[in-house]
Amino acid sequence: MTEVVTKQELDEAFAMFYGMAASLKDLASPPVEVADEERVAAAKRVFLKGIDANFATQLDACVHCGACAQACQFYLGTEDPKYTPVHKLDLMKRVYDRELSPLSWLKKFIVKDITADDLRAQQELVYDSCTMCGRCNLVCPAGINIADMVAMNRSALAAARLMPDELRFMQEGQEADGTIFGADEDLFRFRMDALQEKLGFEIPIDKPKADVLLVTTGLDIHLFQDATGGTIETLHHMGVDYTLRSDAYEGANFGLLSGHEGTKKKMAAKLANAAIEVGAKVVIVPECGHAFPALRWGAAEALGKPVDFDVMTVSEYFGKAVMDGRLKLEKDKESRVVALHDPCKVGRWGGVFEEPRAILKAIGWELHETESNRAYNFCCGGGAGNFLIERANPLKRAGYRVKMAEIEKTEAKTLVVSCGSCRMNFEVGKVNAGDTIPVESLAAIIAAHLPKTEGAKA
Amino acid sequence: MTLLDFARGPALQGAAFIFVVGMVWRALGLLLLHRNTPLSRNRDNHLARHGFRTVLSRFIPAPVFERRVSFQYVAGWIWHLGFFVVLLFFKIHVMFFQGLLGFGWPTLPNGVVVAVAGITLGVLLWLLGRRIVNPVLRYISTFNDYSSLVVTMLPFITGFLAFAHYGFAYETMLALHILSISLLLVWFPFSKLIHVITLLPSRYILGVKFWRRGVQA
Questions:
Q1: ipTM
Q2: Which residue ranges does UniProt annotate as crossing the membrane (chain B) (predicted)?
């Protein structure tokens, strides 16, 4: 592997980036003043459009058994009952009961209507204390999809203009520029030039046609250059016909994270159209947890029709290549004991479990699984954009401790992740908790184990 | 008309009518709502098979959750099973159904049914106590939760008293027992007891949702 960034450079970039991320709240424009009635009406419109027969059935299936609390790391980390996952659906249940349920004619007189103050109080429940990781979905005896309904709550609050300032800043920025953290085209090109120089080969940008469209993200452009560099180096090694696009390189989607439907669809459509234009068979999204669902499950929804290309995350694309024998990796002389973090949006919500494990096996590292793994993993504690929300810091720390306690039990010497925001959250959590376990990018690990000779062709 | 005549006649019939109409209304109301269908490609097919798999698999908690939630799964199992055993295999109940349907079925000895009813009522009382004491349950519980528990317990309490000839005259206790069942029937469509028709479909919906993404939920 070519070292595209040294440990010291990464640490310095992290410190600078963390400082920038911590000031987002102050950078946000003043919130738009909206009448309370308008807020309530906007939120209700989202609920009434979003609650279909499936969600209604699930809302009517809850017996308030409380099992979901036992799966939620924010409850487990704080033992505060207000973080019980299903409690976060009370507001939408009230709207459903009063306005959509078969008993609405009766419930109108019994159930209290929602107010703008209710919506404000809901912010903490569906943003700060929930990363929509979906672990609660797996313990619920009724199989209620609590996480997706929390996402609908985020959309309702976004429509009511009640997003946390940090996410609003990010969403508005991406709506305007198409990218995040100010990673505009100039910076993208600057970074690619720098990577090109270090890697020693040309990085294809804006090729008119290619089999694979590679996407990156502002987080990697600013910070995790090893992940982007590792991905590019491995694609080059495999001889893949790929390209990046200077007009469609941002994989992050703060429409999805903030709950802003317009931005969510706009960003997904932009990437989908770019993929169609280059005739890509596969779009590889970066090591960015939510970039995967935003495009894998969101591209067709954004265009309003099925799409012909596949969407894979880095770990999935290279993991499949390893499993199929198309990518050979060199084993380390000495095995290293590692733990693997399954990012929620890629694992539990995306079905990517075996591919990263195949990669670790191929390089001869000894994986010690956490007690909760694969579909049952704990979130890093700061997913779904929460790593940027300042007021959620105590909750993030509580969530991080729950996760890290499982990692510590594995006695692993390194934590492997394939999601930039998980990585970011682990790094911040480590600083706060005084932990020292190294956190490494899977993409960078793959590149570090490429054989010196040419690998099999894709 | 005696209280027993009222309970056996208009009360039970009216309650049964409300139960049937209410449950059909609720079910139709859910079925007739629009249904959003995803456009993105499934990672895997055979969705129906895996939906049913989730319906079955959620009867027990996943191993990683066993330590924290097994007891409440077991408690739920015990009292639901106990409810059906007492309802369907108590001799007097079977005689009632025979009068209604024209055919009967084997019954369990009274001693067994009484023991099962005792355990069931005990578990229900424990669940009520837990709902009051446990901080999570206390926080999320509403009138719907407490009332549904009490309304479910009443037929057991009145049934015990009638069976033991305790309290009021037997006819009065029997009437109260039937009235408590009528109340339970009326309560079904208006309360969380509606989960008898939504819980298994809800599991199926989640099973399909996850399986199309390649995840066994």
A1: 0.97
A2: 12-33, 77-96, 108-128, 149-168, 174-200
